[in-house]
Amino acid sequence: MIKHSATIKNKIYHFEGTDSLSEAPVVIEGDNITVDFNGAVVNGNTDDENPDKFKGTGIVIKAGRNITLKNLVVKGFRVGVMARGVTALKIINGDFSNNFRQHLNSSRQTEDLADWQSYHHNEKDEWLRFGAGIYLRDCDSADIHGNTVTEGQCGLMMTNCNNGLIYNNNFSFNSGIGIGMYRCNRNNILYNKLDWNVRGYSYGVYYRGQDSAGILIFEQSSDNTFAWNSATHSGDGFFLWAGQTSMETGDGGCNDNLVFGNDFSYAPTNAVEITFSRNKIINNILHDSWHGVWGGFSYNTIIANNDFSGNLSAIAIEHGKDNVIEQNSFSDDKAGIELWSNPKRPKDIGYLQKRDTRSMNYSISNNSFKNEKNIFNINNTTDIRISNNLVSGGILQQKLDSTVKNMEFDHTGDQVKPHTDSSFFPKLTFKIAGQNAMLSPTRPKGKKYIMMTDWGPYSFSYPIAWEEKTDSTGKIYLDMIGPPGKWKIIHIKGLSNPSPLNGEFPGKLIGQKDSSALTNIDIEMEFKGDQVISPFGIRYAKGDPYTFHYRKFEIPFKWQMKWFVFDTTSDPLKHPAQFNKIINGTPVKLTNGPVLSKVFGLGFGKNIAREKVVTVSEAEIDVPDGLYRIGISASEMAKVYVDDQLILQNWDPAKLIYDADYHRDVITPLKGKHTIRIEQAQYGDYGMLNFIIQPVYH
């Protein structure tokens, strides 16, 4: 217990993390305390390469005033630093990287739905299941600056924290959230690096995001300013949702937040997502995302002076009302502005019952559109004023139907000169020296460079051989990416004729996959060059050798899936004997294919009920001798058998609370030929079934 100001000796302190998050090896409590850790390291786990096993909290700061924590490193815990009920807390120049993060089950080919996160509730600290570098609750007037959180899941997570100043931090390359806020008001979030906070993405295959974000603002968080931050390459760049309170009552929201001068580009989903609230989105860079702004149910919202480019849809608002879209620049988007509503949408929540959610009252003026494939796509919307917009690089393409009423459309074309109204620009003055948080010109940019590993986004701090493609002849093309330096092949398995055998970064490596049906490739390489920081935070000095691998393991499955239905008399939990008779009887239908999730997905709900449904799937495998991680993600219950021996089960729906609960895995030895059988049963209509088998590498 630290109750007085102190300077800590610079050394590594190892304390094994415990199951309790409210206790910690270092506890600080009191008023007017400064603790300078002088670069000391507090380490909670020496098993660096299994961060999903990290437990406990490194430092707990209890109720007090004017407590300063600075110059420390905390790693190997579920939560690096936790503070509760502290007024005027300062956390300065700390490094809380390499704390807890989930092992991701999604692959480059297949999304695993159990990887989805949900931050919709935190009244009971539900967010703590995701861990955090810094976790604050009831901490008003906090000053958090100069800190780093990378290679974790969540950076800074705040609840009931008001009037804070969060600036000059680097919360990048995490698998969940950069900065998260819940019931937080009047905070200034400035000059932060929040790039590559992402999961649920595979370039050219799927773009889901799985509720990851650079900045996440939930549940009655209002009057905050977010300025001059970079949150690129994140699931959402900026993700705002009014909160469950508003959904149930129709009151409140996350309102009157100013989002100014940020870069939210290259989001797999939305550069900015703002829903059920009233906000200002001004002077931001919003490039190459699914949506530049997704503004469902936004009202009295200003979207002005932003730079939209290369999005599938620049602005998309359903059921929006009284919104202003002015002085923006649009270029090379597939759709410019999309407005719509669904008049038949059931009013099944309090918000829809209490609020007027018609799509109406838009001012769209003084924008410029260049090379837009379709500028306006509007339906079921009334009272729209479109005026003084410049259109260049093509003709004015628009989709309007008879449901659009009371639209004024004038002075829009290639001869227009948009006017500039400076009143949209806020007068922001802060007495801080802000860093340039924007990406360096030398940093690779674009969604191609969202490269997801088993633990999160690739951080460019270590060498990697990244598969670009495999052609129809089995030739594999690898991009050699990493710090400046040289690489050479040390050992190779499962790939022939590699070319070249050595090279420099960046570079290419090409090889021919062996002709066997099983893909079991392992290329061991050595790197020498600039400093390396491994994905688990281990530092290698410039010139020191660093070993890395390219590995690919794929089994040629031939899944046979039988489909059944059950009722109250054959309930799998209440009447297991009758249930077993059903699954050993005649199936309702049969499906088959090489990828279990696709076999299930293509068959789910097709000529069979979506509820009270059962599948039994079998496939033969032939694998080399070794240890394997076998995993199953299923809704809602599943059992996995190897040669009729039960090795894994998740058969209690009462324990399925969060998305991650739908996944289970086990380590087991295998050799040669085996039969895999999976029994899956569900009561509800949410369908998910994914099977994973991977070698355990030492």
Walk me through what this model shows.
By secondary structure, the protein is mainly beta. The chain has a 32-stranded parallel beta sheet that branches. Strands 48, 49, 50, 51, 52, 53 and 54 form a 7-stranded antiparallel beta sheet that branches. The protein is globular, with a radius of gyration of 27 Å. The chain folds into 3 domains: 6-424, Pectate Lyase C-like (3 Solenoid); 461-553; 559-695, Galactose-binding domain-like (Jelly Rolls, Sandwich), CATH 2.60.120. Helix content is 4%, strand content 45%. It has 4 helices and 54 strands.
Global geometry:
globular
Distance between the termini: 39 Å
Alpha carbon gyration radius: 27 Å
Based on the structure given, which CATH architecture of the largest domain is correct? 3 Solenoid
Helix segment count?
Answer: 4
Task: Classify the beta-strand content into a percent band.
Answer: 35-45%
- Tally of distinct domains: 3
Which fold name corresponds to the CATH topology of the largest domain?
Answer: Pectate Lyase C-like
Estimate the mean pLDDT confidence: 97
Q: What about the largest sheet? A: 32 strands, parallel
In the CATH scheme, the class of the largest domain would be Mainly Beta
Helix coverage percent of residues? under 10%
Structural class: mainly beta
Low-confidence parts:
none
Number of strands: 54
Quick structural overview:
It contains four helices and 54 strands. The protein starts with 5 loop residues before the first strand and ends with a strand.
